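Reopening: structure tokens for the methionine sulfoxide complex, inputs below.
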Amino acid sequence: MRCAMEEITDKMKLFDKLSKKVSEILGGGGPMAERLQSLCDMLCSMVPYYDWVGFYFVDNDNPRELVLGPYVGEPTEHIRIKFGRGVCGQAAEREETIIVQDVSEEDNYLACSLNVRSEIVVPIFKDSCIIGELDVDSHQIEPFDGYDKTFLESVAAKVAMIY
Ligand code: SME
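Re-run output (same inputs, fresh job):
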């Protein structure tokens, strides 16, 4: 049986390794959409409890609406999400990271798949304005902690740099 400290150390090592991969992917050539898709693929395959990883971006024509961008995981019907609706819309409105450790306890939640048990949504800021979000769903209950938040916020900051 592994102790909590070993699990935290493993997580820190994993995110440290993935931070370098994130920079490599985003700093590589090619269209931005392809780089973001590679980033989603990498995160989903490397973190065992990341089961859906994707981006929503603020719609230029409707600044209080999010539009689905590159993602990996089960297809979602939530292609467009208004600010305030669901976890994504709440994170956009509040301009802060939201972690829902058990989606069955969240009233303002838009289900993407019955397999999803928890979610973290991290806003992406450019010049202090929200331009999008990184959304991660998990099939586990309560898998996310401060290390995921710090790591994914650093990913969002790197995405903003190339946006
Ligand atoms: N669950 C999100 C909707 C997006 S899908 O999970 C991909 C929400 O409540 O906003």
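Residues 52, 76, 78, 81, 86-89, 109-110, 112, 119, 135, 137 surround methionine sulfoxide (CB under 6 Å). The radius of gyration is 15 Å. Marking as resolved unless the reporter disagrees.
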